Amino acid sequence: MPPVWLGPNQLAELDALKIVPDGKKRVRLYQAGELDLVETKKIGQKLAAADIQDANFYPEGMHVQKCENWRRYLNAERENIAAGLTMPEQKNTQLAQMADSERAQMLAGRFDGVCVHPESEIVHVWRGGVWCPVSTMELSREMVAIYSEHRATFSKRVINNAVEALKVIAEPMGEPSGDLLPFANGALDLKTG
Fold first, then answer.
1. Please, what is the end-to-end C-alpha distance for the chain in angstroms?
2. Alpha carbons 39 and 37: distance in angstroms, whole number
3. What count of other Cβ atoms lies within 10 Å of the Cβ of residue 75?
4. How far apart are CA 148 and CA 37, in angstroms?
5. Which helix (H) or strand (E) holds 92?
6. Burial 22-33 (b: 16+ CB within 10 A, else e)
7. Contacts of 144 (CB under 8 A, 6+ apart)
8. CB-based contact 108:115 (threshold 8 Å)
């Protein structure tokens, strides 16, 4: 049996693909590129649904000895499938078809307020009554959480594009007033007291 190769296009359409022929009970999986946890789980569900009994996964490729046996994992996935706990498909397509600006708006919706410093392009979010700077990594992780909640696959490029789009659509920060002293429970206006 020739190997089945799953590239980015095949992973995006994994729900519609038949990756294992009928009657096959054992497979070997070699990772040769980027594969996130959601994609790995979808592959596991496909194998479990095809009644694969034994699978060896080589996460570092075919020339490395590191191997994970998926027998227990496939049994757990079969139980999940029997209980109706599979990854929803419709949300995947919806999220994948969104424009970067729509994904950025979803990301902005995770915070009470979002603005960006116009010169440094640092994003700030409203937390506990103050504007707090947030790193690009934190925003990326929040975007990954959105994809995980939707059980959708993603790439680093898609995440980066959403974060960059957020910087464009967020309101620019105004100039801070030199007459205000910030405190944890409010601010003191030095002009009015």
1. 81
2. 5
3. 12
4. 9
5. helix 90-97
6. eeeeebebeeee
7. 154, 159
8. no
Mean pLDDT of the chain: 84
> Residue 71 in contact with residue 57, Cβ under 8 Å?
no
Are 87 and 100 a contacting pair, CB within 8 Å?
A: no
Pull the structure tokens for residue 169: 């659509």
pLDDT digits (tens, 9 = 90+) for 12-45: 777 777 888 888 899 998 888 888 888 888 888 8
Which pLDDT tens digit goes with each residue over 101-138? 889 998 998 888 899 998 899 999 988 777 899 999 99
114: alpha, beta or left, given left = phi > 0 and alpha = psi -120 to 50?
beta
Most distant pair of Cα atoms in the chain: their distance: 81
Task: Name residue 54's beta-bridge partners.
Answer: 26
Q: Is-contact 177 36, C-beta < 8 A?
A: no
- pLDDT tens-digit readout, 141-161: 999 998 888 888 888 999 999
pTM above 0.85, yes or no: no
